[in-house]
Amino acid sequence: MDVPPQVREHIYRYFGVAPLYSYHPDMDDAVLHGRIWSATAYASIHELDGGFNRVFCYGGVPWPLTSNFHGLLLSCRTLYAEAARLLYSQNMFVVRDLEPLRALVPPPSPPCKVSRLSSARRRATASRATTRPISGVAMHAIIPPASPQLLPSETSAKRKSSATTAATISLRSAGTTPRAETCSKTITPNRLELALVCDVDDTDVKAGELAVAPLCLLPQLRNCHVRLCRTRYPQLQQVAEHAVLHACRFPPVEQQQPPHISSRLLSLPRELRFRILEDTDLITPWSEVTWSRQHGGSYFESEPACLNPEGFDIRCPPDIHAGCRLRRCWDNMYPAPSLGCFCRRQHTAASSACRCWASSRALFLVCRTLCDDARAVFFSGNRFVVHDYLYISPFTAPDPDGEYPGDRFAASQFLRDVVPAGCHRYLRFLELVFPAYSHRRWPRDDDHHPALRDWRDTVEWLRPRINDPVLTLRVVMSESCEDDPPEDRPQMTKAQGDKIIAAYRRILHPLTRLTLADNDGNALARFYAQLACPWSRTAEAPAWSWTSDDSYRRDLVPRMERLLRERAERLVMGDRYDSLYPPDAEEPSKCLWQERYARIYY
User: In terms of domain of life, where is this protein from (predicted)?
Assistant: First the structure.
């Protein structure tokens, strides 16, 4: 008791009452790296299960048990008050049962100092047998993101009919309202950060409203996170968002004008509407969209391989990393640890911590005029990458035996069936990616193979529908994985490789139609090719190359790929090649799939 209070606080921290260092905005990167990440965690989680306490910490750093400082709380009133203040204000607490909340008593009890609390309630269903604790809340995404393949419906159609009644009884009988009234007396306004998890049936809006109703009885919260369902459901999402706004005392978004009056946005010039829509989620964080027919035929936002959104030890280039903070919010540990997964893309949840990008589908449904504007911004503001096979693993090819897997190229299907009519003229960048098909898989007959005939017809059909002077086209014949190449690649002969190069030419030749000037003198703005050398994965240098193994891979293969690229671009661009491709000209940056999967495979 003779030492200053500041010294006693450091002693409490070393005993494990609170983290050794807590985050504050003035910490620079050196302090964060040197103290927090190397020394110890800057927050801990106490999980309270009705009397049983489990302590979690971040980063695998051992954290002292509560028994280490339990004696401090029993020694004297002064030490108890100081230690309890640190314990409840510097740590996070998880409540899975109402029993710990019943221990709260009016001030000056220390629970009034609690700063971060997470409540994980049981799922409200009609059958007690299916009631189970929700996934845990902890420092690093302990509430995992949902996966549609892993989350089948837990409630049959028969039980859904009685779900609302059962959920109402369950939530009303749980005593949440009296507990909320008691807690409201012990909470300092604008101090507590509360995370509520109560997964109800996806169509049970009434149960969701009952789950968040006690939040109205609490004083203003510093921050609030609510999750009402493991899967996404729009009506429940609205309930969660309104609950968070009310808990933090943010004014609700009021409707400015009656529904029958059209928006003032439509009265603006179209150029201004475009600028407004460009600031929405119509443009992905990396301005790149992926499409593959093997994955449902839907658009996907392209993503890099970076798994470190908080910015420490950046793993991707800065120009790419700018969008990494708009994804995987449950992994973000900076500036404060995550209370769990409250991602609006994965769950029916509302949280200020989630800044993940989500597609603005609602903009296409407002009216015809706004739909046309949204399409124009979407197709002109993003680069489009079309994979002929798997986009998840673009270096993987189907079994080398057999014919080409389909009667159409994915590019033909995308341009004819996926892009809406009238939107081809908005395209600014299009990349067509083909995997490393074997010499037997590539279409071989120009006149009889349906995929090649359809491809020629598609290019002819596309010619008057695109805006040539602003469109850049790139064709990529990707390489196979170095660690696990297809069976034919390690022993590729010269004749087999020549067949693959001939297949490249069959796909590229119809594109020459796009570079011929039309009646107005317009032609394709730019064309780029990236063609993999068929012999790059041979186990030994081919005999016809007259080089050693090291020299073959280091010198000859890159030289052959540069030659293939130049020949392809000259074939498509014709006489315009020399004027459009000076030696110092820069090609557009590689798309994200190459940056992502080249790092994974190599």
Answer: Eukaryota
Q: pLDDT tens digits for 508-554?
A: 999 999 888 777 778 888 999 999 888 776 655 554 455 555 555 66
Strand ranges of the sheet holding 383-387, from the earlier edge strand across to the other edge: 299-301, 288-292, 383-387, 429-434, 472-477, 526-531
Residue-wise pLDDT tens digits, 296-318: 667 877 777 776 555 455 567 77
Residue 242: inside a domain = yes
Bridge partners (DSSP) listed for residue 226: 196, 350
Residue 34 region by backbone torsions, left for phi larger than 0, else alpha for psi between -120 and 50, else beta: alpha
User: Is residue 302 in some structural domain?
Assistant: no
- Cβ neighbour number for residue 273 with a 10 Å cutoff: 19
Task: Report the DSSP beta bridge partners of residue 93.
Answer: 46, 117
Domain that holds residue 167: 5-151+161-247
Domain boundary among 219, 247, 275: 247
Boundary-marking domain end, from 247, 281, 301: 247
Alpha helix ranges (H) inside 311-449: 318-321, 368-381, 410-413
Distance CA 445, CA 431 (A): 24
Q: Which element (helix H / strand E) includes 208?
A: helix 205-212
What predicted TM-score, i.e. pTM, was given to this entire model?
0.73
CA dist 428 to 410, 423, 434, 588, Å?
Answer: 19, 11, 20, 12
